[in-house]
Each structure stands twice: as structure tokens, then as C-alpha cells.
Write a structure and sequence with these properties.
Blueprint: E1 5-10, H1 11-24, E2 29-33, H2 35-39, H3 43-54, E3 58-61, H4 64-73, E4 80-83, H5 91-99, E5 102-106, H6 109-117, E6 127-131, E7 139-140, H7 145-155, E8 160-166, H8 182-198, E9 202-207, H9 211-215, E10 224-225, H10 229-232, E11 249-261, E12 266-267, E13 272-273, E14 278-283, E15 308-309, E16 318-323, E17 335-339, H11 343-353, H12 357-363, E18 370-373
Parallel strand pairs: 1-18, 2-3, 2-10, 3-4, 4-5, 5-6, 6-7, 6-8, 8-9
Antiparallel strand pairs: 1-11, 11-14, 11-17, 12-13, 14-16, 15-16
Helix pairs in contact: 1-3, 6-7
Pyridoxal-5'-phosphate (PLP) binds at residues 33, 84, 167, 210-211, 226-230, 236.
């Protein structure tokens, strides 16, 4: 923990983001992605609020241990937890899935085999994720794998699919972008769904869409959508016209030291030379807090004086350079909003540094206290 920086999380903004999403996809249920510590915002408080105050009943985590942590933290209410990216389905872990009512998302034949052979999974809902072109995790629809999946399920008498899914590789690009694959993936998903139906399988739920797809109206007629980023605020499209979410977090950082500098004064590690006369503020944040060195040279356009992260970002500190020394420049002890609730702030940092907003959020480490407003 440190005293000079904190991430303020306004959960009322999460509620308004969820309401804005519901206005877009009124007939569709939300499976809220809270993996990676709720995209850095604190998985448990975020999910608890979404469950208790916003009525969201489905959550997505990446790992078994994220799932166990979430279930243990909120044992008193029923809600679904899907585990997306873990393939440890052996008997050693099967009991933990079953006992904590965690739903593994099956993405390969090996996982399906383990799932079908472990007794502990016999009462666990069957969730299948197909690769429709992203080529990451997912059962394949080609080379007879789909037929193999059908026959394995038939042999075991499992004809009820709880949730059938796929995931898009390029939904963060406009649908009109060259080489876009989202709509083709959607068509492939439809073929898979039809094949299961032809073979007499029942499919309770279907979902395909993460933030970029939802914003572009793809897959929003299915039973669920699976938003992550957009519910934390920013759009995942570089230019979004539709999504008006607000960043639920604001990163506040204190000025530890302020000094007037002449042009060409060497600053910090590596002695970067100041471009002109001005003021340097030393801030209480560094890469030891998850604030990437790639944010060097990023300009905070939303702050008075439009200061720039100058010189190398250190483990525990970073330097902001202001042109001049006049009014509007913070004093020692002042607190600056590195990003605020306007998503344009973090999106600007992302565009300048080349770090996706997902990573800026997720990277923030434990040393930054999270403070919640209800
Ligand atoms: C399978 C799956 N669905 C949905 C999401 C949510 O994506 P986004 O944060 O872009 O909405 C993710 C995130 O990586 C994911 O892996």
C-alpha cells in the first residue's frame, strides 16, 4: 500500500453503465467479465455491487482460483460463475469446480473428455466454446471435430447444452474495416448452433459478444452478452459513437516534490533534458505500482497546463513536466487526477502510449489502494 496514490472507484457509475448497456440490449442477459481482479478494479467489490445493486446474475473469470475466491466472498446468494481459460479439469480439481458451483468453459477435446469422464462433473452444466476464427482457445468446427464432439456427448447421454459460445478476434474494429472477421465468425457460430439443433440437442443459452461487438450491435439478439471493458467505462473501439459509458475509476496521485527548472536540466534516471524552462512535479506512482514505463511522454490533456510524463518512469515515482511556472501548476501535496471518470482521459493515454486501456487498468498493482464510493 502507499499513501500518495489511490484508485477511486465510483460504483454508482457501474450502475449507470449497466443501465446504459441494458438500454442497448434490452432482451439480453449480461454475463459480466470480472476476471483479472475486475479489470483491476477489485473483482469482489465490483461483482458484489453488480449482483446486489444491479441484479447481474452471471460472471466470467479466467481461472479456477478467481472463481473460488469470488464464490467464497459471496456465499449467501446464488449466481453463475463461468471459468473461461483454465483447462485443469482433472479429478484433483473437479471436486472444487463442482463443490463451488463453478462452470468450466470447455474449449478443447481434451477438456471435454475430462469433463465427461469425471464423476464430479456429471451435475455441472455443460458449456462449450467454439473457435470460429479467432484461433485462440475453442473447440474446432473443422476436421470433423464438431462431429466428434456430437458423438462424444451422445455416447455419454449429455444432450443438454447449458451455454454455447464463441469469442471474436477483431470486434474492436469497425465492421467496415478491411479484413474484418466478426460477421463471418457470427455466421460460423450460427452453423454450429444449427448442427447441434439438427442432432436434437437442446441449447439453453448462447453468447458471442464482448464490448466491441455489443457496441456494433452484433450478437445482441442471443440470450447473453459478455461485456468487460465497456462496463468499466471506455469503449473498446477507437472511435465509438454509440457507447457513452463513464470510467468507474479515477486514478489520483500526489505531488511529492515540485521544482522550477531551466531548459536542459537533467531529470531522474538517464538525465532526460528538459525541453525548456518550466516546472517538474515528482509524482507518487511508478512501475512498481503497475504504471508502465511506456507512459513516458504521455501528455495529460485534461489537466490545466497539459503536463507530460517526462523522462523515465521509475519504480516508485514519475516526473510530470509543465511549461512555465505560473498558476495552475500543482504544489507539493496536491493531488492530480491522472485519469478521471471521463473515458476520454484513459483513451487518450492509451492512444499516446500504445497501451490498450485494458492493460492500463489491469496493471495497477496492490500497492495502489482502491477506494469505493457507493
Ligand atoms: C471469452 C471472453 N468474453 C468476453 C470478454 C470481454 O471482452 P471485453 O472486455 O472486450 O468486453 C473477454 C475478455 O477478454 C473474453 O475473453
Amino acid at each position: 500500500m502507499r499513501l500518495g496514490a489511490n484508485l477511486d472507484i465510483d460504483l454508482k457509475l457501474l450502475k449507470s453503465n449497466i443501465q446504459a448497456l441494458r438500454a442497448l440490449v434490452s432482451k439480453t442477459d449480461i454475463l459480466f467479465m470480472v476476471k483479472a481482479n475486475g479489470y483491476g478494479h477489485g473483482m469482489v467489490p465490483v461483482a458484489r455491487y453488480a449482483l446486489e445493486e444491479c441484479g447481474v446474475g452471471n460472471y466470467g473469470v479466467a481461472t479456477l482460483f478467481e472463481g473460488l475466491k469470488l464464490r467464497k466472498a459471496i456465499p449467501e446468494r446464488p449466481f453463475d460463475i463461468y471459468v473461461f481459460s483454465e483447462n485443469h479439469l482433472t479429478s484433483q480439481y473437479a471436486e472444487q469446480y463442482a463443490h463451488s458451483a463453478l462452470i468450466p468453459v470447455l474449449s478443447s477435446l481434451d477438456e471435454l473428455d475430462l469433463f465427461l469422464s469425471e464423476k464430479a462433473f456429471s451435475r455441472v452444466p455443460l458449456v462449450l466454446k467454439f473457435n470460429t476464427g479467432m484461433n485462440r482457445l475453442g473447440l474446432s468446427m473443422g476436421e470433423d471435430e464438431l462431429e466428434l464432439v456430437l458423438s462424444k456427448l451422445k455416447n455419454k447421454g449429455r444432450r443438454e447444452i447449458f451455454h454455447l459460445m464463441t469469442h471474436f478476434g477483431r470486434s474492436f474494429e469497425p465492421l467496415s474495416a478491411p479484413g474484418q472477421t466478426t460477421l463471418a465468425q457470427m455466421q460460423s457460430f450460427e452453423q454450429i448452433r444449427q448442427r447441434f439443433s439438427q442432432e436434437g440437442f437442446s441449447i439453453q443459452y448462447t453468447s458471442t459478444s464482448n464490448s466491441g461487438a455489443i457496441e456494433q450491435g452484433v450478437g445482441v439478439g442471443l440470450s447473453h452478452v459478455r461485456p468487460g471493458l465497456m462496463l468499466y467505462g471506455p469503449s473498446s473501439l477507437a472511435t465509438s459513437t454509440l457507447w457513452k459509458g463513464q470510467s468507474i475509476s479515477s486514478l489520483k496521485v500526489q505531488v511529492l516534490r515540485r521544482m522550477s527548472v531551466k531548459k536542459k536540466t537533467p531529470i531522474g534516471y538517464g538525465g532526460a533534458l528538459t525541453p525548456e524552462d518550466g516546472t517538474v512535479c515528482i509524482l507518487a506512482i511508478g512501475y512498481g505500482d503497475g504504471f508502465s514505463t511506456k507512459l513516458q511522454n504521455t501528455i495529460l490533456y485534461h489537466l490545466p497546463g497539459k503536463p507530460m510524463f517526462f523522462g523515465r518512469i521509475n519504480m516508485d515515482m514519475a516526473q510530470l513536466f509543465y511549461t512555465g511556472s505560473g498558476t495552475g501548476i500543482p504544489k507539493e501535496g496536491d493531488v492530480l487526477e491522472i485519469w478521471g471518470h471521463d473515458p476520454a482521459h484513459i483513451l487518450s493515454m492509451s492512444a499516446q502510449s500504445g497501451i490498450i486501456p485494458y492493460e492500463i487498468y489491469c496493471a495497477l498493482g496492490d500497492r495502489i489502494p482502491r477506494k469505493y464510493t457507493l
